[in-house]
Amino acid sequence: TSLTMAETPLDSIPSIFQDLRASFKSGKTKSIAWRKRQIEQLYKMCDEQKDVFASAAYADFHRPSAETLLYDCGVVSFSLNYKIYRVHQNVCTRFILHTS
Predict the structure, then answer these.
(1) How far does CA 14 lie from the centroid of its chain?
(2) Using an 8 Å Cβ cutoff, are 41 and 26 in contact?
(3) Among 16, 20, 25, which residue's Cα sits nearest to residue 38?
(4) For 12, what's the count of Cα atoms within 13 Å in the CB-facing half-sphere?
(5) 91-95 — which CB contacts under 8 Å span 24+ positions?
(6) pLDDT attached to residue 82
(7) Which of left, alpha, beta for 55 (phi over 0: left; psi -120 to 50: alpha)?
(8) CA-based nearest residue to 29, from 97, 98, 99, 92
(9) Which of 24, 47, 83, 91 falls between 20 and 30 A from 67, CA-CA?
């Protein structure tokens, strides 16, 4: 599979950053459902693109596909799946000020 990677122009990064900051400030990232959906989308991307990742690792490092699928995609998928079912345990209901 031959894919081309689209590069982000440097001059567009500030507006992307501002959009992300606005999303965060809007409060939508506080929702457990929103957080869970983000993790699910990462899981889906990792699963759907695992062969692309394996091909890239082989092309760049001559790394066997099985290694990438097991050690990279497998571990990441497992971790994301773990987080999907435990996201509610990592949500703080109040603001904590870190002084250190």
Answers:
(1) 20
(2) no
(3) 20
(4) 3
(5) 91/32, 91/35
(6) 93
(7) alpha
(8) 92
(9) 83
Q: What is the pLDDT along the chain (100 residues), one digit of tens a residue?
A: 456 678 899 999 999 999 999 999 998 888 899 999 999 999 999 999 999 999 999 999 999 999 999 999 999 999 999 999 888 887 766 666 777 6
CB 54 within 8 A of CB 73: yes
Reading the block at residue 94, the tokens are: 């109040």
The one-letter amino acid at 17: F
Give the Cα separation of 28 and 14 in Å (integer).
Answer: 21
Domain boundaries, the chain: 31-100
